[in-house]
Amino acid sequence: MSTTRPSLSRHAALKVRAHGHVLVLPERALRLAGSGGEILELVDGRRSQAEISAILDARYPGTEGLAGEVERFLAEMVALGGVVEGDGRDPEEEGTPARRRGPERPQRTTYAPLNLIAELTYRCPLQCPYCSNPLAFRERREALSAADWGRVFEEAADLGVVHVGLTGGEPSTRPDLPEIVERAVDADLYPHLVTAGRPLTPDGLSALADLGLRSVQVSVQDATAEGSDRIAGTRSFEAKLALCERTKALDLPLTLNCVLHRENLDGIGDVIALAERLGADRLELANTQYHGWALLNRAALMPTAEQLAEASRIVKAEQARLAGSGLSMLFVLPDYFSDRPKPCMGGWGRLAMV
Fold this sequence. Notes:
This protein is an alpha/beta fold. The chain contains 12 helices and 13 strands. Helices cover 35% and strands 17% of the residues. An 8-stranded parallel β-sheet has the order 12-11-10-9-8-7-6-13. Strands 2-3-4 form a 3-stranded antiparallel β-sheet, with helices on both faces. It has a two-stranded antiparallel ribbon with strand order 1-5. Strand 10, helix 9 and strand 11 form a beta-alpha-beta unit.
């Protein structure tokens, strides 16, 4: 890479918080220790690796092995998808989003979550039997206004948060979703939309992308229209596929999410094939979490041990087949079928706040 001019991936963002630099990728954020942040500050698609090393050598004279450290770090970033090996073209001419440096934040010595899960509303046009919505959601107080969400985003950024997942319920039931996206961008967050595919339209998604939306997750309930619409309780499968296709047309990272249970677990191979066909970057095969409506409907949703064993076998085989294809898969067994509980969200709870 020494003669090429590396640049940040168009789906990556470099943020600066009180605890240092953070590289943000779709649904992922990495704190950069040591010189990592300084290296990425110099990665702009114009400088070569050798030029980056020379700048750092002048900044820290006498440092042994600095060029090798830069080479190893950039190779690691390329493998993670945060950096691409450019050819010297101006990244702004290629439509790469401009890099924003957030406002100066108060210095802090403690680490804070990197991801904010913003539950914008409990409203949703779907009627999935595993929904995490409260059973008596109508008794809950009204949702926060867009202005209040803007304040929350600013406070989260002050704590160190870099990524925000806009979720619900169904966030696109809010007519002020565009304003909420704008306020997330203004707070120097990386906005990610989690949607069930209605009432959001492809044109509506394009408008959100124009405002700064960076990545999208679309849920499906099964791999076929018949199965997905039956579980969702309303016709929505074709609308979901249209949003997936528009997401890819907009060159936004696409995550496909399918909540698994007794009724659809046997079709896990078909769900993987659907994600592959749609060009998804990530597939979340999310075994049902038994709270809210899922706990109420547990007897109907709980799979058998044999179903889970066969699903695990299929996922492992498909992960091996798709290695290097660009499609990553997440599959975690539910605690009901484990010897002991896992860390919250597989440890993800250490990095996120709701």
